[in-house]
Design a protein that fits this description.
heterodimer; A: alpha/beta; 7-stranded mixed β-sheet; B: alpha/beta; 5-stranded parallel β-sheet; binds iron/sulfur cluster
């Protein structure tokens, strides 16, 4: 898949940066996208005015999504169908993303700047602009199983039905 | 081969003789905690049942805890409506561990759970809150999950696909100097490990300083373990755990004192000499930006906060009252005290601490999260500085992205209230 970097971030981007606590009374996944990165005014207004295409990429360094367990941080980005490529992710954020179907890619050596063109394959991210390639680290196997099942709601529903059938 | 405490707890919770790091397991849950975000959990829980023709029923209403704390009393119609929705769900499902907005039962979730005897050694505790790591202070494996994952727990009673985490052993020895506290130990450790140093791992706390530490202090350590990225912090249970549960939490039943093996395998060992520690400050805007206090002394502060699930307990209020008794909060500085629960509030009132603090100029706020997460009470103005005993200082955390938050111990907060600037209590208090 070919796509583009729309936002480049550093280390330790917290859930307060992605989805500030002051909007936490908004819970429904359908209502959260408006507040994505709201304190990054320029980026947020590009999202709201639909200047950012689905499958666009946010690139970050280490520990993306650290901090709170708030699931809004994943649902707000999922709402715009963004893809997050980071050197690594904070545990709860990664789990929430896999549970909700937000695409997260662990790419420990990624180098990319805003507006760079990327090509993402199963095993690597190719930065078309710089010509460099970066290997993708597989997601933890426990998480991949949930993605393969179509997200945690579907996975849980399947387990529930198995349980109900067994009684 | 020896096992860590978490390997042992997960083996028990999955009915296996042993598990090892990297295994994927599905442990049975003993306590499943949510707060106002229970509104989202309910939404996701009903999603699970959609199209199944089964009646939505939680797996065990006696194991679910819901505590209103993040925005109490409600700051907006939206919050009040969420709280109403949760209240109705609680009553329809028969959930018993529910703490509403009431002076006879309320407080911050991570204080309410231990205080009411809901946590035991060896338990599996999950919460839709990252600081669920706190309950490791009583020897439970306790970790934060998202709302959809909680909906799955409510449905099945287990956590799906848990990868058994590796463990970092932290050994703390030596006596803490006067005005140096568990908060300074954990800030120092986070500075050493970095904000991601323990990501996907558990921190097990050992050493004679921990053995002598009260449960209140252990709660501080485990609470902030997540700021180094840890899945959980945990203190192997001992006599102090039993004392706390029996005397303070009123637990009568038999306790399962699961402890790690002496030859357990750790991924890393970190040693801290408590006797050499000084007061520590986490500077804006990351919790691992930790400095010794002499590097930041003199920074002017507009607001001082004592409270949160980290440092809003009776010993925290006690030290603040002892420092501020007969003194005054500096002109131009506001001081807010949020006791972590109404039980603590009442105790602090009975012991006279609240009166000393009010007379010094502090405001006593109602128990709850207060301004810790910046949605309710105590907002900061542009370019203002907050010095706070809470656990996070991310940009915008206390409600204003154009403000600075420094984190510290209660003793530092109290000493700084008198001067209006960051002040070392070892020098500033006579
Ligand atoms: S006091 Fe702060 S950190 Fe603790 S649960 Fe409340 S908002 Fe979270």
């Amino acid at each position: 898949m070919k796509t583009k970097v729309v936002l480049k971030l550093g280390d330790d981007i917290s859930t307060d940066a992605i989805y500030p606590g002051r909007f936490m009374a908004t819970v429904l996944p359908s209502e959260t996208p408006q507040y994505a990165f709201i304190d990054y005014k320029e980026f947020n207004s590009k999202l709201i005015s639909k200047q950012i295409a689905p499958n666009s990429v946010i690139v970050a360094n280490n520990n993306f999504g650290c901090g709170s367990s708030r699931e809004q941080a994943a649902s707000t980005l999922k709402g715009w169908e963004l893809i997050i490529i980071a050197k690594n992710f904070a545990r709860i954020f990664l789990q929430n993303s896999c549970n909700l179907g937000l695409r997260t890619i662990i790419c420990p050596d990624i180098e990319a700047n805003e507006n760079d063109e990327l090509e993402i394959t199963e095993k690597e991210v190719k930065n078309i602009t710089s010509g460099k390639k970066f290997a993708i680290e597989p997601l933890p196997k426990a998480r991949q199983a949930i993605i393969d099942a179509g997200g945690l709601i579907a996975y849980t529903r399947k387990k529930l039905m198995e349980k109900a059938a067994a009684v | 081969m020896g096992k860590t405490i978490v390997e042992k707890i997960l083996a028990k919770a999955t009915g296996q003789t042993s598990v090892k790091v990297g295994d994927v397991v599905e442990p049975l849950v003993d306590v499943a905690m949510s707060h106002e975000n229970g509104a989202l959990v309910i939404n996701q829980f009903l999603e699970v049942y959609k199209g199944t023709e089964l009646e939505p029923k939680v797996w065990d209403p006696s194991k679910i805890a819901i505590i209103f704390d993040h925005r109490v009393p409600a700051e907006s119609a939206k919050t009040a409506t969420n709280q109403k929705k949760i209240r109705e769900f609680v009553s329809a499902q028969g959930i018993t561990k529910f703490h509403d907005i009431r002076g006879d039962q309320g407080g911050i979730c991570h204080q309410i759970l231990p205080e009411n005897g809901y946590i035991r050694p060896g338990y599996i505790v999950v919460g839709t809150d990252s600081h669920t790591t706190s309950h490791g202070a009583l020897g439970a494996f306790s970790f934060g999950i998202g709302a959809t994952e909680m909906a799955s727990v409510w449905t099945l009673g287990t956590v799906l696909n848990v990868e058994v985490p590796g463990t970092i052993k932290v050994i703390v020895t030596g006596e803490l100097p006067k005005f140096v506290s568990p908060k300074d130990i954990i800030l120092n450790l986070i500075g050493k490990l970095s904000a991601q140093g323990a990501n996907f791992k558990v921190i097990e706390f050992h050493g004679n300083t921990i053995r002598k530490m009260s449960t209140s202090g252990r709660l501080v350590l485990c609470n902030m373990a997540v700021e180094a990225g840890a899945t959980s912090g945990i203190v192997p249970p001992d006599e102090e755990t039993v004392r706390y549960l029996r005397e303070e939490a009123g637990v009568k039943d038999k306790l399962d004192m699961i402890v790690p093996d002496a030859d357990a395998i750790y991924e890393q060992v970190v040693e801290i000499d408590a006797s050499k520690l000084t007061p520590q400050i986490a500077c804006p805007h990351t919790v691992d930006n930790v400095k010794a206090i002499d590097k930041v002394s003199g920074v002017k502060v507009n607001q001082i906060v004592i409270g949160s699930c980290t440092n809003g307990r009776i010993d925290d209020i006690e030290i603040a009252a002892s420092i501020l008794k007969g003194k005054k909060v500096a002109e131009g500085t506001r001081m807010l005290i949020f006791p972590a629960s109404w039980k603590i509030y009442k105790e602090a009132m009975t012991r006279g601490y609240l009166m000393d603090l009010i007379n010094a100029g502090a405001m006593i706020m109602n128990p709850g999260c207060g301004c810790c997460l910046g949605v309710h009470q105590g907002a900061l103005g542009d370019k203002e500085v907050s010095l706070s005993t809470t656990n996070r200082n991310f940009k915008g955390r206390q409600g204003n992205p154009n403000s600075d938050v420094y984190l510290c111990s209660p003793a530092v907060a109290a000493a700084s209230a008198i001067t209006g600037e960051i002040t070392d209590p070892r020098i500033g208090v006579n």
